[in-house]
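Reopening this ticket.

The earlier resolution said the output was attached, but the attachment link was broken on my side. Pasting everything inline this time so it's all in one place.
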Amino acid sequence: QVQLMESGGGSVQAGGSLRLSCAASGYTYRDYCMGWFRQAPGKEREAVAGSDSDGTPTYADSVKGRFTSSADNAENTLYLQMNSLKPEDTAMYYCAAARRQYRRGFRCPGLRRDEYNYWGQGTQVTVSS
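Inline output:
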């Protein structure tokens, strides 16, 4: 059973940093594509970062240059380093997984939210001005 568990959220002042973690279990990590999403109250869940099929992260324009997604495959853990945080980054942050398909033409979902199959419970990030 695929399980994702986020941690590392909290409250921080604008300009500060946080590092989120997503511990994955129940599957072979390399067989899945991973991504980060967030949802603010009253808004739709939006993409933050997602991996291409070769593992290279793609970022939403709103976080480029400030956020970095990385993975420790040995520990089955995905990270999101968030620097220069802004009040508009306040949201519940989720990690997501999509099973990789070993067929010609397959691409990891990257930032395409609807192609992810598994979601964590989220971790809250609050940035005050």
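Reporter confirms the inline version is readable. The two ends are 40 Å apart (CA to CA). The chain has a mean pLDDT of 94.
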